[in-house]
């Protein structure tokens, strides 16, 4: 059995020009690491603006009204919210903290979508005060909002047919909301839903079904203008061939301690992000149906607006050699934890290959990556990654495309280790990068 049989197949991430510039710069990453003194995240908000523009172009080509709300739970960085404000996108928030942070970094009140179940009275009051669009998840929430006696804009969140989700209103609850005569200054402006998975056809079909609900609501006097299909726009992390090889051949032989995972995020998608939105609008000519009925389609992408907008950097501070089936591999320890690379929060593994920096010649070696904690289970990468050269103490390990959910979904100062800060890259006339700490 050769080295390739115990070292995982490569999963190289798609790389933007800014990322290559960062890796090619002889000093920038080292300067950042020196200034921080621990693990850190790198953010490039210009990529967020580009992603927003690509989604907006799909709406324009389809000839329909579209609204984009960034799902803020995917990343807390202030620079992302600022990029949304500058690019004309709104923000989807689900707490008073997220709402006030969005306002603080340039989002206007009427550019907010407020989601989440059983919102607190404080969140409902702030949302109404600022003219946000509020997605109502239960009738009691609607009644509490009406009791505030403030003008309020509302979407009714629909429980998808056949779903066992804890979120959303049943048919009977929707009818009760639409026929309630005690709602005062609450305006019912449309419907929303969220679907698990990444099936564009399912989103298109439910959106089309909700057009009839919009017509019925208008007949009852409600100024219904919007259907929100939520998020769930897939991201394409790695080339198709690499993903096919991994899914066909992956097994415990590729993982430290013969670790097994039952499921992975689909790290390759043939039609990700904006292309998936185009599929939604094209299915059964949904775009024409929306246009003919004067309905705006809202989306709430999180991960997809963060595609290729950030990376995570750890310093190697320990190197061991271990063997699997008689062949050596490296077992690295870095200066952070898997809490800052959060896929294992979902009982899975983040698969795009990290890159050792600085670049040096050497022969390929398999390497698993452990964290700086005393927990046996705390590995950033159980998989024996095919590094292009052996890692050494003091090297940096750069995990690509981590801005979507990986950076801070599960962060913790466990062991009183520092939470990695976010550093924001700024172009300086295209000649070199400058950087600053994120304002969040």
UniProtKB/TrEMBL annotation:
Residue numbers of N6-(pyridoxal phosphate)lysine PTMs: 73
One Pfam match: Orn_Arg_deC_N
Catalytic machinery residues: 374
CC cofactor: pyridoxal 5'-phosphate
Keyword GTP-binding applies: no
The keyword Transferase belongs to this UniProt entry's keyword annotation: no
One biological process term in Gene Ontology: lysine biosynthetic process via diaminopimelate
Keywords: Pyridoxal phosphate
GO molecular function per UniProt: diaminopimelate decarboxylase activity
Occurrences of domain Orn/DAP/Arg decarboxylase 2 N-terminal (ranges): 48-245
Name the record gives this protein: Diaminopimelate decarboxylase
Organism: Nocardia pseudobrasiliensis
